[in-house]
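We now fix the convention by which a protein and its fold are recorded. Here is one such record, which you should read through line by line:

>
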Amino acid sequence: MPQSHISKIETGAVDLRVSSLVALARVLDLELMLVPRKTVPAVHDLVRSTERASHPPTGAALKHLKQLQKTLDTITEAHPALEELTQLQHQLRAIRRFQLSQNDVGVLQNTDKALQAFRENTKSSDSLNQALLQIYSLRNALGHRSADGPQTDTVRPAYSLEEDDDG
């Protein structure tokens, strides 16, 4: 396909045939798929969450995640039957899929301190519950943050095959 034709497609000067659209999508390693209009917001959310999942934490966040995991592993070895530790492990795995801010790193540090306090005094479960509450709150905040992320404008087709009340 000549560059001039691609330019016309990009500017909307040419009506694109489905076969050409499929060919372009394949070249770009994309899959062309029709999605019911009412599910478009859900598809956008899935794409955004997948994009975030492909950007795991780096730098200080990764360092603190590893430290927290190390502390958790140590406590789990000593107390393998504690359900709270299993829940913490699960939430920590979920958190690894998100990009973390400096405030999130602070929550990780506080959670690690709470776990270390539990390790020093295993008779009191207050610090373990505090760690679990902090990690749940962080996971929920990260999940909501990705769902509330920057919204893209809805792309409107230049024409439609039929008129509808939603358009």
In short: Confidence is low (pLDDT under 50) at residues 150-154.
